[in-house]
Amino acid sequence: MKAHDGLYIGGAWRPAAGRDEIEVVNPADEQVIGRVPAGDAMDVDTAVRAARAALATWAATPPAERAARLGALRDVLAARKDEIAGTVTAELGSPLPFSQAVHASVPIAVAGSYAELAAAHSFEEKVGNSTVLHEPVGVVGAITPWNYPLHQIVAKVAPALAAGCTVVLKPAEDTPLTAQLFAEAVHEAGVPAGVFNLVTGLGPVAGQALAEHPDVDLVSFTGSTAVGRRIGAAAGAAVKKVALELGGKSANVILPSADLARAVNVGVANVMSNSGQTCSAWTRMLVHRDRYDEAVELAAAAAAKYGDRIGPVVNARQQARVLGYIEKGVAEGARLVAGGPEAPREQGYFVSPTVLADVTPEMTVAQEEIFGPVLSVLRYEDEEDALRIANGTVYGLAGAVWAGEESEAVAFARRMDTGQVDINGGRFNPLAPFGGYKQSGVGRELGSHGLAEYLQTKSLQF
Ligand code: NAD
Question: Which of 246, 349, 374 to mutate to test the pocket of ligand 1 (most atoms within 8 A of CB)?
Answer without folding.
Answer: 246
